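User: Predict the structure for this protein chain, please.
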Amino acid sequence: MSCSCFGASTVLQKKHDKDAHQAKEDEEGPSIAKTKNFSYNELRVATNNFQRTNKIGRGGFGTVYKGILKNGTKVAVKPLSAGSKQGEREFLTEIDIISNVKHPNLVELLGCCVHGPNRILVYEYLENSSIDRALLGPKRSIKLDWERRSVICIGTARGLTYLHEELVPRIVHRDIKASNILLDKDFQPKIGDFGLAKLFPDDITHISTKIAGTTGYLAPEYVLGGQLTMKADVYSFGVLTLEVVSGRSSAYTNYGGAQKLLLEWAWELHEEGKLLDLVDPELEEFPNDEVIRYMKVALFCTQANASRRPLMSQVLEMLSKNVKLNEKQLTPPGFFEGSGRLSGKLSKNKLSETSTSQQMSSFPITITQVTPR
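Assistant: Here is the predicted structure, written as structure tokens:
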């Protein structure tokens, strides 16, 4: 009898503990062991109920808010769009890939929150926003001299070098662009938004995957064949460097009376020996030779044939040291028109070198359009 009562008591206690745990989970959300778990209420208070005035940006899967935790720490809070399967994948991917990755040029993921339908990522807060807000378009928030722009390019290259060549397994970011490079109080760049990132084991040459990314930054072999390598990030970095130097968006806009991509215009100026015409008019003083070198490095990064593009460690060396570039090795870039059609100076022979015989239509595409400011 006593044994029976003891057994019943144990069952009741377990049920009580389970109910208590469920109540706590309903309040705070299920735990994700890889990172710090914030409660929904904690983040709601930190952002003043996700007040619009605290909005500091918007990504492909949700708005980003500035928040202040109880201890005074400033954070960037990113709720993902409710009910979005793609947002759910981004959420889990980001936690899985960067929860334990630390580098001065990578945005730090501080934690997350899972509460009912809510999926929220919490990052370190960076005072000077993203490159596109600080630099691109007519309403610039910050005046960036050449020294700061050089630091942005080199720091971003250093972060990508770490992802590509120092981590095991390596990481391909897949969405390097101006809005994903954030600036801290000292204007040091940090790569953010790893929702599209892919782990890249050492024993494979490429990953066949659906196409995702942003118009103007996508490498031609990736769009045509869906074959992803780290050279896709190198291509995107090249476009980003041209944006930093020129203060112009990578997307289609009016250059010299015609609608062109920034990369298309840069190559034309290179062929004419007029690369300095690309430099941002707001840059009052800058070292001509160094700025030209940066633009030529960008053109090496965006060559149509992926195998001709340098590794990010080589890019970092070319940017940070006054090295003489072998321009005889430089070939035309590859880029795409809005319809996805291959454009630019590519011949059929050059296209075949990229080993992308599959048609674009055989791969699902998730592409963000960039609107020039």
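The chain has two domains: 37-124, 131-368.
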